[in-house]
Amino acid sequence: MAVLGWLTPRRRSATARSVLAGEAAAEAARKSEQQLAQLAEAEARKAAAPDSAFPSSPSEPEFPVVGDDLAAAFFDLDNTVMQGAAIFHFGRGLYKRKFFQRRDLARFAWQQAWFRLAGVEDPEHMQDARESALSIVKGHRVSELMSIGEEIYDEYMADRIWPGTRALAQAHLDAGQKVWLVTAAPVETATIIARRLGLTGALGTVAESVNGVYTGRLVGEPLHGPAKAEAVRALAAAEGLDLTRCAAYSDSHNDIPMLSLVGHPYAINPDAKLRKHARAREWRLRDYRTGRKAAKVGIPAAAGVGALAGGTAAAVALHRRRR
Predict the structure, then answer these.
(1) Spatial distance between the Cα atoms of 3 and 21, rounded to a whole number of angstroms
(2) Burial of 178 (0-12, 13-18, 19+ CB in 10 A)
(3) CB 92 within 8 A of CB 108
(4) d(Cα 256, Cα 250) in Å, to the nearest integer?
(5) Which residues is 266 bridged to in the sheet?
(6) Which one, out of 48, 64, 74, 118, has a CA that is 20 to 30 A from the CA of 209?
(7) How many Å separate Cα 173 from the centre of its chain?
(8) Alpha-carbon gap, residue 194 to 284, rounded angstroms
(9) How confident is the model at residue 183 (pLDDT cuts 50, 70, 90)?
(10) Rounded to 5 degrees, what are φ and ψ at 247?
(11) CA triplet 15, 208, 192: central angle to 5 degrees?
(12) Catalytic residue among 68, 69, 76, 251
């Protein structure tokens, strides 16, 4: 993605960086929308019944409303649409292709194990992963990473899509509405996932590139927390959407700013803070995790032991390295 001319200086306030990140993500998403729409037209979409995705009582109006072109849906990615964090799966794929060393993979594995077991984002882990990813891709061509991203999706991500959340997204598509991913993952990775799922497009973190080559810097800041809300607000304004008629879906309390923007917020596989917040405000909840353990920690029950073992091994490796 070409570098944007209004790249912010580092001394700008956090709020200004959030706005900038949101606007950059919205601009990138709109540029990719036409491409994704053309690809989607070439493939026959499987019919999905909106009623099964959105069960309602006789007193509730049908939702999503068919033909409401002022409405759209915004889906968080990590642990909402897909189990785990996209950036960690991407890291596994890059390691397989020898982009970095075994010690870096151990750090990625530990962070991913923590995310799956705790079911919440650790800011330090996410910051570390972000900086690692930027240093890894620096100097590589955007087209190269896009091509590799397609392969990584098939290897590590395709089987981790929550069928229930995908059905919710499909219900909006079948109603004639646009559906966007909104994620802190790189916009290129998010766009690949959106296209594979037949969605409209993606809002993601925008990495600076010059002449098609990554510089190792971001435009603004990662699309996280308040920056997601700014991205949705900017995209809605550009698309002429009515946010009171839109829906948003997330698992994390970090996305409360985004969820609070729309008229139809949904908590999907929610962490404890979001569950409490959603219940207090009578937001709808959906939990597609199975088993008592998974309901607590946000992982498939069968994967719990393996994730714990992998995380423990990674922790030991890290401890030895630090000593």
Answers:
(1) 13
(2) buried
(3) yes
(4) 8
(5) 249, 284
(6) 74
(7) 18
(8) 24
(9) very high
(10) -125, 150
(11) 100
(12) 76
- What is the bridge-based pairing of β-strands 213-218 and 207-210? antiparallel
Catalytic residue check, 154: no
Amino acid at site 67: G
Edge to edge, the sheet with strand 264-268 lists: 201-205, 178-186, 72-76, 247-250, 264-268, 284-286
Asked if 271 and 298 touch (Cβ cutoff 8 Å), the reply is yes
The structure tokens listed for 115 are 């995310």
DSSP state of 12: S
User: Are the CB atoms for 106 and 314 separated by under 8 Å?
Assistant: yes
Measure the CA–CA gap between 219 and 221, rounded to whole angstroms: 6
What digits encode the pLDDT tens for the residues 253-264?
999 999 999 999
**Model-level pTM?**
0.71
What residues contact residue 76 under an 8 Å CB cut-off, 6+ apart?
A: 181, 182, 183, 228, 248, 249, 250, 251, 252, 255, 258, 268
- Indicate the length of the chain as a whole number: 323
How many CA atoms within 13 Å lie on the side-chain side of 245? 18
Rounded CA-CA distance 148/17 in Å is 29
- Check pLDDT > 90 for residue 299: no
pLDDT averaged over every residue in the chain: 77
Q: Tell me whether strands 178-186 and 72-76 are parallel, antiparallel or unpaired.
A: parallel
Among candidate residues 51, 68, 69, 78, the one labeled active-site is 78
| DSSP reduced 3-state for 252 | coil
Token pair recorded at residue 134:
């930027």
Percent of the chain with pLDDT over 70: 66
Across 139-155, b (16+ Cβ under 10 Å) vs e yields ebebeebeebbeebbee
Report how far apart, in Å, the C-alpha atoms of 69 and of each of 11, 122, 167 are. 40, 37, 20
Report the percent of the chain where pLDDT is more than 90.
Answer: 47
